[in-house]
Write a structure and sequence with these properties.
The chain is an alpha/beta fold. It contains 8 helices and 11 strands. It has a 7-stranded mixed beta sheet, sandwiched between helices. A 4-stranded antiparallel beta sheet has the order 6-7-9-8. α1 links the parallel β1 (2-7) and β2. It is globular, with a radius of gyration of 19 Å. 38% of the residues are buried.
């Protein structure tokens, strides 16, 4: 059975919304060169994946490892892969709007719009950023970012500090959960990255990506593995067999990769 090492993107392979660093690219290439597959499972859409790790994707395809490299946007509900000659292929299942129905989907969008209006005044008074692109429909999920997805790195850092001090996202996650329970809607919410919320149908968390890899032994590295984080479900499934790791950032991820490769080495008693 082949091995695949699955990675979250923001906070794991890259700093949030930043480009991947050369040393991390080299470590991913080492995984592939040792005969293992790599998968990137993220709540972000493919557009953000290309912005952040496009250099890695191009290099992987160029050196002939494209068929062993898997892109899994929107929690893995979308699957992008490459054939032996580097041609891109894509599988996209049913979308969230179809699953919820037009009325339920519209009601959810209205509720999130009301929450955004509610926080905009206090944010403005506390000199927190409001940058635009607050609610983003990604096909299989909705991402709500109260400061806006157009925020730059400094603006994101200001919000992250505020969130840590005030517990803002934990509080508003509870508000969203109350709305979900009131409507008896078949959806759930998780903290997405460091500034947002991911809302999606039940079962469409990152464990969804495992449906693509039934013939593999799967490993996972993510940074949001605690309660409420969008890596938790996949982490919990694979940690039961000792194949999931929580990272503190890209540098720590490199160290974890080296440990996994040592375990998988033919010379290792564990491999």
């Amino acid at each position: 059975m082949k091995n695949i090492i699955l990675f979250d993107m923001d906070g794991t392979l890259t700093e949030p919304r930043q480009r991947i660093e050369p040393q991390t690219i080299n470590q991913i290439l080492e995984i592939l060169e040792q005969g293992h597959d790599v998968g990137i499972v993220t709540g972000s859409p493919e557009e953000y994946v290309n912005q952040q790790i496009g250099d890695l994707i191009e290099l992987v395809v160029e050196v002939g490892h494209g068929s062993n490299f898997h892109i899994l946007p929107c929690n893995g509900t979308e699957y992008i892969f490459y054939d032996d000659v580097g041609e891109r292929n894509e599988i996209v299942p049913d979308n969230m709007e179809s699953t919820m129905g037009p009325r339920g989907f519209t009601e959810l969008m209205a509720a999130l719009s009301n929450l955004q209006a509610e926080v905009s005044g206090p944010f403005w008074r506390q000199n927190l950023p409001l940058t635009g692109n607050f609610i983003q429909y990604r096909g299989s999920m909705i991402n709500w970012c109260p400061i806006g997805r157009n925020a730059n790195a400094d603006q994101r850092a200001r919000f992250v500090e505020y969130d840590k001090e005030s517990g803002f996202r934990e509080q508003y996650k509870e508000f969203i959960e109350l709305w979900i329970n009131w409507k008896e809607s078949p959806i759930t919410v998780a903290l997405g990255g460091s500034t947002s919320f991911d809302i999606y149908p039940i079962g469409w968390d990152k464990t969804y990506c495992l449906t693509w890899f039934g013939d593999y032994t799967c490993w996972f590295i993510g940074d949001k593995c605690k309660e409420g984080g969008n890596d938790k479900q996949l982490y919990d499934v694979l940690s039961n067999s000792g194949r999931a790791y929580e990272t503190t950032g890209p540098e720590d991820t490199i160290a974890i990769i080296r440990g996994i490769l040592k375990t998988l080495s033919p010379d290792s008693s564990a491999g």
